[in-house]
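Example with several molecule types.
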Amino acid sequence: MSAQAAPAQEAATPGPAAGTDGLFRDTGPGNRARARAWWRRSRFWAICAAVFIVLSLIAFFAAGSGNRSSATLSITNPAPAGARAAAEVLRSQGVNVTAMDSLAGTTAALAANGSGSSTVLFNDPAQLLSTEQVGELAAAVRSAGGRLVAIAPGPLAAGALDAGITSAGSASETPAVQAGCGNADAAAAQTIDGGVSAIAGIAPVRTALQLYKGAQTCFVPDGAGTGNSGGYLALDTTGSVAVLGSPGIVINQNLASRGNAALTFRLLGSTPELLWYTASLKDVPVAEQPPSLADFTPQWIFPATAWLLLVALLGMLWKGRRNGPLVTEPLPVVVKASETLAGRARLYQDARASGTAGRTLQHATLTRLAHKLRLGHTAEPAAVVDAVATATGRNRQQVNSLLLGDAPKTDKDMMSLAVELAALEEEVARR
Amino acid sequence: MAISGRFLALALAALVPIVVLPGVATWLAALGVLAAVLVLDLSLAASPRRVALQRTLPAGVRLGERASAVLRLSNESPRLLRAQVKDGWQPSAGASNALQQVRIRPGERTALHIALLPSRRGDLLTHHVTVRSFGPLGMAARQRTIAAPGTLRVLPPFHSKRHLPSKLRKLRELDGRAAVQIRGAGTEFDSLRDYVRGDDVRSIDWRATARRRDVVVRTWHPERDRRVVVVLDTSRTSATRIQDETALDTGIEASLLLAVLAERGGDRVSLLAYDRRVRAKVSSTGKGNMLNAMVQSLAPLEPELIELNAPAIAGQVRDITAHRALVVLVTSLDAGAAEEGLIPMAVQLAHKHVVVVAAVRDPAVDEARMDRSSTTSAYRAAAAEHALNRRAAITAVLKQSGVEVVDAPPQELPPQLADMYIRLKAAGRL
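Resulting structure tokens for the full complex:
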């Protein structure tokens, strides 16, 4: 069978009308034209969506800015409670500040940095490390010849750092405190304090205030008395292990206040490498961690579920794609003829129009009986009553009251009248 | 674009490697394979844009009868076309196999037969044909909708046709040409013929008998070449549904039977469908295709939700014929509409013409009238009596003015209207 000989140029005729040969061809716009038409139609919403996505991305990156942290004393936290200022100043002074989050990593870095070149800032706010681990850290620092600055360690941890350092309770506030000891760093700082909030109207950040005693005890608050009371800074005899009881002097909010910066930078900036070690869950032995759901599920669950979601999407596309546009059915208006009848009946009933209904029934029966008894349309009602009485042998009085009597007053009367009229008609018809 | 169930099965099958070798690489590889299959199949599919279509539709089909629409597709692309073709008939066309699979080699063509069983009278439309062309793998398809309008005219069923033989026999008896020897009941002299036993002796023409010396009888035939004008009301009252059909459908049935009968009876029939303007107008030309012209013009009629412009009907009838005619008004006798429009119009027409009003009676009203089993049904009976009373009053007014009224349930209206016509013709009132 040969192809239709119709020239392809016919497809250029506008509209869906068939060509002279009665052939229909796709005369619609091509894919590119359709895309253009779609763009023209939904340009506004497409641009809206694009702007929304771009703004969301900008907001996400501006807020997150990659690896920003909100933890207290984090070197990537620019908030009042962070320690980014201290880290940045140290960096600009040539100190290589490295954030560490595990004991193993810290000891490895200590060993890698070489002897005497590292300072370790040890911050364990949640007290995750056991005393053995703290001792291990202290030993590693000691063997590397580095310096250890512990930020508010717990009593046991403080003891594990250096046998000579003990916890001496806590303080409630940080007024300016004089150095009051022979340590060069402390003496250079002269006075430290809790600082004030840099932003008016925002409550200042409060941090833990611990007191320690050691071979050298500095910054003893006034209220704590003298002699054996603890201070905010305790050092061992060589000054290579320092315990800072007031982390508040390092945070961004307070760094610029009094001698806080001097103390911070002298403690942390004495070596080219600073390992900023914050204890994390990685330091907790694995056996102590509760097993998560992931340990019980097979490895393929997540990829398989994701794939099934994709398959479900494909299933929707498969079944949801229509074979061509929707076809409309023009529906003509059709009204049930007895609607008006039903409406009138409801009106009668709702209005309790038993009188009207009864009269209508009486009149209809009378007319029909007149017709049946061949009395004509114009027959007198009395004549019809006479004829009915004669035909049925009923009492004339009774027939008269039934056909011409008073209209019923109640639904019940109307009902019985209707039934009696029907019976009478039947009786006449049977005759 | 569209995908097939096969593509979905492939996607499901990819679950096996994902479970066996969990990992991002497997996942991405499965995704890549799917995408590759999709792109490959789409690029190898024949273009659905290069399909030429040709329709062959039946000229007309009666409601309730089956029809077959032929759709010819020719593949003008250089590739084998494996496609699903969907003809976009509207639902009431009853296209049971509108979606069909085809396989056409390049340059060849094929014909699809689409079975139609229309469920509604009128012009049923299809606007387009959608071609979904699958690639050689049967995974993905390109889809295109091609505008290809087609119209199927569904004609009135003319169920009342079954009354035609009996009514025609009556008409022939009237004509004196029936096999049964009945005196021709017409009023016009037809011819003289020899007496045969059984002829009515009253029709012996004594003067001719005297001339011929044989007994000769006169034969009569009814008057011929009279005008019958059927006016079909398509206004809002024709939208009422009585039993299974609208009043308009019943009116069309009655009009058709009457028109065919009058046509055979030798009269000239005109039909006018009117509400506020002329919806259809057919006049018999004497060429014998009156029925076809009528069903074709009546097929697309729909009830219009507007009031009948009754005063204009007299003018419309005058346009059709200037002479005396039998005017049949197929309308409704509902109270309100009739009192304002129908009665004055029918009375005015009756001055010049013979007027018959044909209306559909709702059997539900007659049933409701006698049902007195409960208070609600008693009220309903009263309402029914009221409606019948009004109807009887309107009928009485019309009859007083010399207008004939045919008031019958849907099944009965066509034969009763035909009987009325035969009666009028026999009485020589046309």
